[in-house]
Amino acid sequence: MREYFGQIWAIAAKDLRVELRTRERVAAMGAFVVLTAILFNYAVDRTVVHPRELAAGMIWIVISLAGLLGLGRTFELEKEDGALDGLLVAPVPRDALYLGKVLANAVLLVGVTALTVAVFALFFQVRIPGNPLPLAGVLLTGTVGFVALGTLFSGITAGTRMGDTLLPILLFPLLVPLITFGAAATDDLLAGLPPGESAYSLRVLAAFTLVALTAGVGLFRFIVED
Amino acid sequence: MSLRTVRWAGVVLGFLGVALTILFHWQVFFWVPTEASMGIVQRIFYIHLPAAWVGFFAFGLVALCSAVYLWLGEEKLDHAARAAAEGGMIFTTIVLTSGPLWARLAWGTWWTWEPRLTLTLLLWFIYLGYFLVRSSTDNLDRGRKFAAVVGVVGALNIPLIHMSVYWFRSLHPQPVVARVDGPQLHPDMATTVFTALGAWTLVFLSLFLFRYAAARLEAYADRVEAARLDPSRSPTPEGAIVP
User: Nearest CA to CA, how far is B98 from chain A (Å)?
Assistant: First the structure.
C-alpha cells in the first residue's frame, strides 16, 4: 500500500516538476481565467444584470474551459521522445499511473479554481462567505471530479487524430451533474445561505467524483495498452 | 452463431418489424381514438415513446457489450456494441425530432429544458463521441478500446445526469404506460403503443443483426487482405462460412 502511494506520488511529482520548470500550463490557464473574466465584463450589460448574480455559473464554466485547456496537454507532454513508452515499461500499475496524473492535474486545477474565485471576487465584488470552508469543499470536490474524468478522456483523445478538439465532445455531456450541482451549491454559498442547504448538492458532487475516479482506475489500462 | 443464421434472423425480424410498422401506422392514423385534451397532435406519442424506449435499450446494449468486450477482448462484442450504437443513434434522432414537433403544438415551444428531452439530447452527443473516437483513431484495435471506454463511462454517468436533469421541475407528462398500477390509457391506445413498441424493437433488432453481420464480414475482408499481403497469416476463423 505504501509502495502504491509512493508510485502515485512519483508520477505526480514528475508532472509537477515539469510544470514548475516550464510553467506552460499554469500560465495558459491563469491567463485564460483572467482574460475570460475581462471579456465577461464587456459581454454583460451591467445596468440590466449584475455580474454577481451570474457569478456561480460563470465560475464553473470558466473552471471547465480552463481545465479543458490544461487537461488536453496531460498526455501531449509524454509524446515527445517516447516518454509514455518509458512510463509504461516502468514497474508501476496502470491505475497508479492514472491516479498520479489525476493528482498532478488536480493540484494545477485547484490552483486555477482558487484564482478564478479570487478574480471574480476582485472584478465583480463577489462576496466570499465568512467561513470559506464549505465553498472550498464544494469547489475541491467538483474540481477533482472534473480532473478524474478529464484525465481519462485526454488519454483517449491523445491517441486520436482529432486530439484536443475531441475532448469537449466527450467530456461536456458528462459534466452536466457537475455544473448543475456545483453551480447550485456555489450560488447558495455565495448568497450566504447556511452550508446545510448545499449538503445535498455536495453529496451528488461527491458521488460524481467517486464514479469518475472508479471508472478511471478501472478503465485507464485499456487506453494505454501497447 | 454462424453469420448465415444471423442474416436469416435479421431478414425474418426485419419483415415482421416492417409489417408491424405498417400496422401501427394504420392504427395511429385511422384506428386509435383521439385523445380528449391534447387532440390530434397526441398521436405523435405513438412514434415518440417507443422510439425513446428502443433508444435507451440500445444504449444499455452498447454499454453491456462494451464492458464485456473490455473484459474478454472478444472482437465480436465490439461489432455488436457498434451495431447497437448505430441503431440507438437512429432512434434517439427520431425521439429528438418527434419530441419538438409535438412540443411546439402542446407546449407552444420547440425546445424546453425538460428532463427527458435534455437527457436524450445528451445521450445523442455521447453516441456522437463514441463514433468520433472510433473513426479518428488510426489503429483499429485501439479505436475499439477507446470507444468501449467511452460507452462504459457514458453509461455509468447516466444515473447522475438523470438526477441532474430531473432536479429542475419537470414539465413532461408523467409516465402513463410504465406505471406500477398498470397503464392509465384507453385500451386501444395501449394496444397501439405496444404494437409500435414491438414494431420498432423488431426493426432495431433486425438492423442490429445486419450491421453486426456486416461488421464481421468487414473484419473478415480485412483479414483476407492481410493474408494476401503476408501469406504466413491465415484469414480464419470465419473462412469456412463465407462464400
Answer: 22
Partner A contacted by B154 (CB < 8 A): yes
Cα torsion angle, B225, B81, B125, B58, sign = positive
- In a mutational test of the B interface, the residue from A211, A222, A225 whose CB has the highest number of chain B CBs within 10 Å is A222
One digit per residue, pLDDT tens: chain A, 226 residues? 888 888 889 888 988 998 889 888 889 999 999 999 999 888 888 788 887 788 888 999 999 999 998 888 888 777 777 788 888 888 888 889 999 999 999 999 999 999 999 998 898 888 888 888 999 999 999 999 999 999 999 989 988 888 888 999 999 999 988 988 898 899 888 888 888 888 888 998 999 999 999 999 999 989 887 6
Question: Residue B127: its chain A contacts at CB < 8 A?
Answer: none
* C-alpha distances in Å from residue B147, one per residue of A173, A180, A220, B68, B82: 15, 26, 13, 13, 9
In whole angstroms, give the CA distance from residue A52 to residue A63.
Answer: 17
> Which of B60, B134, B67, B68 has its CA nearest to residue B91?
B60
Task: Note whether A40 contacts B: Cβ–Cβ < 8 A.
Answer: no
Q: Is B160 on the interface with A (CB under 8 A)?
A: yes
State phi, psi for B238 to the nearest 5 degrees. -95, 10
Q: Which residue of A has its CA nearest to B131?
A: A170
Tell me whether residues A173 and B129 touch, CB distance under 8 A: yes
Give the three-state DSSP class for A53: helix
How far apart are alpha carbons A128 and A135 in whole angstroms? 8
Q: With an 8 Å Cβ cutoff, are B132 and A166 in contact?
A: yes
Residue position matching grid coordinates 461489432: B79
For residue A136, give every residue at least 6 positions away whose Cβ sits within 8 Å of its Cβ, in sequence order, or none.
none
How many other CB atoms are found less than 10 A from the CB of residue A79?
Answer: 10
Residues B143 and B137 sit within 8 Å (Cβ to Cβ): yes
Q: Which of B149, B162, B165, B167 to mutate to test the interface with A (most CBs of A within 10 A)?
A: B149
| Cross-chain Cβ contact A173/B145 below 8 Å | no
Name which of A166-170, B62-66, B218-222 the model is least confident about.
B218-222
Q: How far is CA B94 from the centre of its chain?
A: 10
